[in-house]
Design a protein that fits this description.
Rossmann fold; 322 residues; alpha/beta; 2 domains
């Protein structure tokens, strides 16, 4: 509850001050003897007249002042929206050990860069269910779809390079993500695939997985990670060479997603900012503000009391002059 014009509440105090001042300045009527008044027994009407009329008058003034102050209640429309489901598919192959992403004055490996960026991305998707799939030579579900984003962030942080093998099973990673999305009722489903290599392991090819996703109506955004080949240092762990750009583009095109390339940390942040915009809720509307005004009710009560005051003053409490 708030008041639009709180200064209006001063009015009753001003009127009270004027009333007391005028009352004190009235001339007093002198009686030769108070004994003449002792034998007068005022009727109940006379006894009730002043306090009743004063009380009603006071209530009317207070209510009118409150109405003038415009009391109102402001609330946001809490209409429930259907969940938007995102599955993050992350490469844990040996090539992710490459320390070619700069953070401040130091170089960090690719997985560290991914964790930093995804931590912020997850925070920004407050109303969505998010899950995590990791893959190397094999693939596994690290976190099922959940609204518990703190849990997702903790499970994301537990991922380590090589824990699923040194290879790159992109197709299997997509397959696990599709299985996690298959039986979920949702307004929108999407997968964000991140890899720095080409598919060289697993039983499902990336394009087979893309075909299944297309039939299921699930978009796949693809992110190719890594510096251009001439800038990347040779590594024993980089078994797959640079990522397979052609396949990643085809996966995105088939499913209605978008392909991105991230060569450094700033690029990676921009990529997930773009994905955040792409995956904005289609049914999302600006938050509606509901304003409840109490002026009509209060003014109505004041009007009813004013009518009652006039009626009493002209009937029961009618003051006969003389």
């Amino acid at each position: 509850m708030s008041l639009l014009y709180p200064i209006a509440l001063i009015a009753p105090l001003i009127l009270l001050g004027i009333f007391l001042w005028r009352r004190g300045s009235k001339e007093k009527v002198l009686f030769p003897s108070v004994g003449l008044l002792k034998n007068v027994n005022p009727s109940w009407k006379v006894q009730l007249r002043k306090p009743s009329l004063y009380l009603l008058s006071t209530l009317i003034v207070v209510l009118l002042s409150l109405a003038a102050a415009r009391p109102q209640k402001i609330s946001a429309d809490e209409s429930p929206q259907e969940a938007h489901d995102l599955m993050l598919v992350i490469d844990l192959s040996g090539s992710m050990r490459e320390r070619d992403y700069r953070s401040g004055f130091s170089l960090i490996d690719r997985l560290q860069a991914v964790k930093m960026v995804l931590a912020e991305f997850i925070k920004s998707r407050k109303q969505d269910r998010i899950g995590v799939v990791a893959f190397g030579t094999s693939a596994f579900l690290q976190s099922p779809l959940t609204m518990d984003h703190l849990l997702v962030a903790e499970l994301l942080n537990l991922l380590e390079i090589g824990m699923a093998g040194e290879g790159t099973a992109i197709g299997d990673g997509l397959g696990v993500a599709l299985k996690g999305l298959r039986d979920i009722q949702s307004a929108s489903k999407a997968i964000v695939l991140l890899t720095d290599g080409a598919n060289n392991s697993g039983t499902v090819s990336p394009l087979q997985a893309a075909s299944i996703a297309e039939k299921m109506g699930i978009k796949i955004h693809t992110v190719g990670m890594g510096a251009p080949v001439d800038m990347r240092r040779t590594s024993l762990f980089n078994q797959s060479g640079e990522y397979d750009e052609k396949t990643l583009k085809e996966i995105a095109e088939r499913t209605g997603g978008v392909f991105f390339n991230a060569t450094d940390l700033a690029d990676l942040k921009k990529v997930y900012d773009e994905i955040d915009k792409l995956e904005a809720r289609e049914d999302e509307e600006p938050q509606r503000i509901i304003l409840k005004e109490y002026l009509p009710e209060i003014a109505g009560i004041a009007l009813a009391l004013s009518a009652l005051l006039l009626m009493l003053n002209s009937t029961i409490f009618l003051k006969i002059p003389g």
